[in-house]
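Hey, resending since the last one bounced:
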Amino acid sequence: MKIADIDFGERPLFLAPMEDVTDIGFRSLCKRFGAAMVYTEFVSAEALVRDVKSTIDKLTIADEERPVGIQLYGRDVEAMVEAARIVEQARPDVIDLNFGCPVKKVAGKGAGAGMLQNIPKLLDITRRVVDAVKLPVTVKTRLGWNSEQLIITTLAEQLQDCGIQALTIHGRTRAQMYTGEADWTLIGEVKNNPRITIPIIGNGDIKTPEDARRAFDRYGVDAVMVGRATFGAPWVFKEMREAIETHPQPLHKGGENQQLSPFTPSLPSLGEGLGVGLTLNDKIDILLEQLHINIERIGERRGIIHTRRHLASTPIFKGIPDFRQTRIAMLRAETADELTAIMEQCRRLLSQS
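The structure tokens again:
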């Protein structure tokens, strides 16, 4: 798969852009474990144009995480164009336009998924940004505003005509937010539309290695984007990569008229034995490394804030009795020593179980 002249290889896995999650430390770890492409946190065009420091800081990228995309959102055409030019100076590999964020403070103001209620403006922004920069421009969006407005099959062609070089589709409407199941049927339809020539990246409910493999097998997408399953688990890319490479033969042709989840229960489970090179101790060490990376980069207090949500969300601590209290302690920790001590306590408890 390629975006412009960037070659990602066969069946690549991308890290989804997520606010307060995909900071530079986490992106670097995900890249190490097999993410073919990573994205920054959301960047507000209006804040970037106003030179807001916290937004400017999000443009910082490291060579070891390339290829990396910076994702912009906004509702004003001129601000989006100017912001894209500013982003270009930060030298990402891709500029991604966010027309999919469903949260009220974004979509409710007409940005993100809110743009799905104003398609002419959405297309105008896309066309103008493509014309304003030399970098590849891509788009991430949803199936439509709600179940009565499932417009993605038409919108995909319109966006391609604007000059974008890849399209990521989250298999939900804005009205769904993150509830219910992602419906990949329309993603498959877009991918199998003979008029579509740009890469199609599927997103939504990719929780396990099996999910990633079957998304490729059933719907023929060019890449799969992983979001919430990465919280506290940057090694999930290694596990998914192993599933894809161990079972390369497609189960079905892309575009089959069925949803991605739930999967057919008779299919073989790939969960056991994946990630055999990583022990529980290895994974705890990785999370501690993430903490140290963030502290070194942005200081102790902010580094802890950026890391502790990953520690509280990681799947490796789910076997600890009454983990809720431990999770609360993690979220309240204010020093690196305090947070490290909680982690080491978790290590001891798990080793005894």
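The mean pLDDT is 89.

Sorry for the duplicate.
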